[in-house]
Structures are given as structure tokens and as C-alpha cells.
Amino acid sequence: MAKLTEVAETMRRFVETAAAADEPPPESAVPTNSAATRMATTARQSYQKTARWMLAAFAAVGILIFGSLPFAAIADVELRWPESLWLVGGLLVAVAGIVAAVISVSLVNEPEDVSLGELDCDLRGLQETDEKGFLWVDEKPVLKVGRLSAAWNPRIAARIELVNILHGPESSAHLGPNLGSERPASVTNLIQKLGELESRHASLAPLVARHTVAIESYEKRTAALKELLEELRSRMGSVLDTELNAAASMHTATAAKLDQERASLTVKKQELAEIDDQLKLYHDHRDLVLAESGVMQLRGTFRLARRILAVAAMLTLFGGTAYALSLPGAKKEPQAVAAPQVAASPAPPYETGLPAKVVVHKGTTAATDLPPECADRELQAIWIGDDRVPSIAGPFRVVVTEAPCRGQLTVPKGEGSFTLVS
Fold this sequence. Notes:
There is one protein chain. The protein is of the alpha+beta class. It has two domains: about 1-20 and about 35-200 and about 290-330, no CATH class; about 350-420, no CATH class. The protein is about 55% helix and about 10% strand. The strands form three sheets. A five-stranded antiparallel β-sheet has the order 8-7-6-5-9, with no helix packed on it. A hairpin with a 2-residue loop joins β1 and β2. The longest helix is centred in the C-terminal third of the chain and has 86 residues, at about 240-325. The radius of gyration is 45 Å and the shape is elongated. The two termini are about 25 Å apart. The relative contact order is 0.11. Keywords: Membrane, Transmembrane, Transmembrane helix.
């Protein structure tokens, strides 16, 4: 029974832990890009917390069922086939129900698709494709799975709904503009668009840096030539005309190259800014798509877990009932209780005394008859009944049997307490 109590206590602590409130996640150094991402995070936490509440309720029912079953009686069972089939089978079915409950809740905590590549792979498992990509008929996705699979598995049904949202007539609102050509936009188009923009950004960024460095170099060169021209003009003479003309030509050429580099840098910066704007736009759409898909997938998983948990509860109930009914004594008729025989009246206990416990308060008259260590503590004694049982506060007369306090003792009222030992 001690082990059963420990098991029940462990399950109780598990219930409290599972149903406990979530701790807020730590603040991230990177801010979220949109409200959709924050809403998706809130929805995910809500689904997972609800799933833990479901498991906590299931565990509470399990404690109620198995806590009332006499598991210790299984030691008295002699396994004989097929008589013991119900006992072993019921126990296995109940354990299978508990395992199914744990698995169902662990599904809700399983991470969803966190990248467009994973999402695209999942969608390709649901929608027909050809060499050009996903297939549509009348602007509707052509699905691989049937309605029966969707009706049986809520997770598949949620993913089919996700296909109809992302690859439906309003796909551009979710995936971004200017993605589809002959066919509606798809997650594959968004991946390709992001890859194209990233490639263009990667090729333009070094050019902008190169033009920036060249401009700095030409600016320094122009400033140096300008100082040289001013110095030469301050020393005008026939000898310096040639040097002055050469410096002026070099200054003019350097200034022209500086203007050319500035013009090129302006063009490249404009192109890079346009690409950055497009990247930000499509990255926002990517976050929106991942948030939508995460919530949709978790919704389907939650519905599947709820269905599995209901089946698990039934398995646990039926298995526990079958196990309990298969234990020894579960079906036996209760034996008739024999009528009690009238025994001879025992001798009055007053002849030999009744065991009692007494306490003598320190500083009283009765305490002077006892050693100091015997006061204000409970002492074993025998009450010789020569009258009715005294009250708790006395007065009473007893024989103390506990060493070193042995001896007859008379305690006035209020100087001690008296209690019979049943």
C-alpha cells in the first residue's frame, strides 16, 4: 500500500505541474516583424496550455480509477490461460490508453514548420504537381488526398485548408504581389523570389562598397591637387607654367572621375534600396505565411490530440474495469457472517486496574511526591477503580508504573490531567 500511495502522490504532483501556468518567454533582442507573428505565438501557447490541461484532467481520472483498484491483490492471482486473459488484457488496454494520452499531448508540443522549405515540402505532399509546379483547376488546387482521409485525420484537414488559403484565388494577399504568371502564386514562387532578390542584393552590395571607396579616394586626390594648384598659383612665373598646367589637367580629370563615381554610386544605391524594399516586403509576407501555417497546423494537431485523448480515456476506463473485475474476490459472493456467540461476562476491570496516562504539573503539591524530571510529562499509570472514572482535570489516584517515577500518587483537582488508555 505504501508503494501505491507513492505512485498516487507522484501522479498528483504531475497533474499540478502539467496544469501550472506558463512562464512568460524571455524578451527577444530581435523584435517581431508583424502582429500576425505575435498572434501566432499567443495562439501556440494557448493550444499547448489547453493540451496540458487536458492531460491533467485525464491524469486525475486515472488516479481516481487506478487509485481505487486493489493492485496488491494481483499477487494472489494464479495466471491460468485463458482465465487470466481478461486480467492481463485489461491491464494492457489501460496502459495503452495512458500511453496514447501522453503521445496525443506530446503531438501538440511538436514544433511546426519553421521555414518555407519545410512548408513547401508539406504542401507538395497534399497538392498535385507537374514539371511547372503545383496544379490548379479553375484556380483551385488539385489535391492528392481524399475527403475520407481529411474527415478521419483533423491534421490533414487543417493542412488542406492551409493549401486552399495559400494557393487559392487570394494567394497574392498572403504570399506577396507579382509572384504568379500563368498559374496562381505558390510558396515555391515566394522561395524563388526571395532567392532572386537575395542574389541581386549580394551582387549589388559589393559594387556600392567599391564605389564608396573609390569616391573617398578621388575626394582625397582632388583635395590634394587643389592644394597643389593654390600653391603653384601663389608662385606664378614662367618656370612654373608647365607644372601649373599639368596640375590643373590632373585636377580636372580627377574631379570628372569623382563626379562619375558619385553618379554610379547614386544609381547603385537606388537599385539596392529598391531591392531592400522588396526584400522587406517579401520577408514580411514570409513571416505572415509561417505564422498562418503554424497556427493552422497546430489547430489540426490539437484536434487530433483531443480525439486521441478521448479514445485513450475510454481505453483506460474499459481496461481498468476489466482488470478490476478479473481480480480474486471481485465476483465472489460475500460469506454470511456467523451470529456472534454470547460470551461470559468478564471480570470487572476495576479488580486489576485500567491503564491510563497522567500528567502532573510542576510546582504543585502532587509534584513534590515525584522526582523533578517526572513533572510536566506524560506518565504510564494504572487506575484502580474504586469509584466512577475521574474527569480529565482530576482529582484522581493512580499507581505510576514508569521508572523512575513508580509509586502511588494522589493528584488534587487542577494539578494534573488524567486519560484512560483504550
